[in-house]
Design goal:
heterodimer, A: alpha/beta, eleven-stranded mixed β-sheet, globular, B: 8 helices, 12 strands
Chain lengths: 462, 240
Amino acid sequence: MAKTRSHKDLSLTNELDYQYISKPGISENLIREISAYKQEPSWMLAKRLQAFKIFKSKPTPTWGANLSGINYKKIRYFLRPIDKVAGSWSEVPKKIRETYQKIGIPQAERKFLAGVVAQYESMAVYQSLQKQLEKQGVIFLDMDTGFKKHPELVKKYLGTVVPTADNKFSALNTAVWSGGSLVYIPKGVKVDIPLQAYFRINAKQVGQFERTLIIAEAGSQAHYVEGCTAPVYAADSLHAGVVEIIIKPGARLRYTTVQNWSKNVYNLVTKRAFVYEDGIMEWVDGNLGSKTTMKYPSIYLLGTGAKGSVLSIALAGAGQHQDVGTKIIHGAPNTSSSVVSKSISKESGRTSYRGLIKIPKNVKNCTASVVCDALLLNKNSRTDTYPKMEVYEADSGVTHEATVGQIGADQLFYLKSRGISENEARNIIVQGFIEPIVKELPLEYAIELNRLIKLEMSGLVG
Amino acid sequence: MSLQISNLSVKVGSNLILKAINLEIKPGEIHALMGPNGSGKSTLANSIMGHPKANRIAGKIILDKKDISSLPTEKRAQAGVFMAFQQPVEISGVSIRNFLRLALLAQKTQFKLNVFQNELDKQAKALKFEPDFLKRSVNEGLSGGEKKRLEILQLLMLKPKYAILDEIDSGLDIDALKTVAQGMLRAKRMGIGLLVITHYSRILKYLLPKKIHILVKGQIVKTGSKQLAEKLEKSGYQAF
């Protein structure tokens, strides 16, 4: 059931006190208002203001996808829980409403995803999960609540993996961040159930400048899942999230994302993990939506024996550019990494793989493998690969394979000879192509993803 | 009731490959089509299945009195025609089990999932596949013999009315040949009419075809009984 806003909620704020807060455009005043509204300590305000200066001083990057369409003045940088993204259900684009119906999203959830309601009642499953986690000492909270409850933890780690000045969008995020998750797994604790932000679905979660911090203490294990396969409607066209992950010795973390922003959104995300001795980091990343995505989940292998892997899939339809990849730095001996990237371009869609594998001199006995497979569905579809290998140590094993393919006439004839129609045959081939990634997703995501790709393939969704 | 090829002439590109072919296969019958390289055997198989490059310029293909000559490939399959490929195609990431389920669904065959699973396991075992084989991707990384046995597994699961098997016996060792032939005999007992395209008579010793047709330069030059295969063994196609 969706909650509607109550008088009590309204009475908490006074519209007159906040003249900038929900208006488009960014300014020092806006940042002060956000910080005041959230009742933050002064160090956080100082951090935000410093970040804003850095944001202003850095030009919009031009080395990747075309970002010239971003109009920073027209974006709303902060939404209070009482500010609805879309005014009413009828303002939500028809295609998005139809997609919700076709992939079977419950009515109440649809309105939340489309931004018509700001809160979506937490499911019972989340509440019982929360109790179980508390017993284990696990923190799994939205970042706003997490920061209030555990300010020292946030202060200790925030910005240590992705510094404010890392890039223009990490600076922007630091200036106006809201929402995201705070996750802390104590030493030796193994969390069996995936920590799914999906179950903790509320406006704070799908903020466009969310900040996520995950700390996995020594020997701990967890799987964090963010996003959802249903298209998330955003009236404002910029999403700049930052995710920082710290994996202590012997810990293991998997971070799964399925991103399906509406097709007006610039999705510019900085995700990075530091991995210490014998730790393991796994990124599983699916990119379906947005107008333009630039996202390169990175792994810094900082302790002997650390391992990292990146499994990613990108789908680009008409007008979309998915510029994705990874950066893996082998900063310690005996570290290994593996990258599997699959992309599908249809119509005028474009996918790019942009990757860096770095093994510095004197870092011995490292192995890295990169596999990039691209599937082009139409003549005017496009894919590019920019694999960079900076290997300065001879004692390393590095492999790279890349393939670009199309659906072959012989494959189609074979499937049709079994009674399968052309559309269904194409669909089967595409689903087979992405299967190595899909099988790594939690079941309900895998099912929704397959259903969604089928919809995309049949051209029913724009 | 029959699969009837009537006066069929086919071009591939600008070359006339098949010239006025006539053939009729009844349910449960096995016919063999033999001929030298380049005689048009594979083109005939492709024409019956509706390959886009096989350009029918005259004649008809009639399935149980229904003219399927102009139907697209998948509609011919749905009507009851099956083709075992000389070179089966790889479909990466699609398990054999799932593929067969999807094919049956596409053919709008009514089936219960557990009945399907049980039958598939049984048929796979009879074709000497290990239980885990069905989890593998369709034809991906399979040996030549496994691919051919998989074509027969598909035949037995999809249960068409008529099947054309294009060089199902090529590249098989003697044990695999026997397994494949036994599978084809099970298909015959189900009432499926089979057209077996081959270079060699060795598989015919197991199949005992009702008729043997000799195709030379796009024409059926001779139709006869199994003695015809023996004659071929001795003197080759020169005699025709």
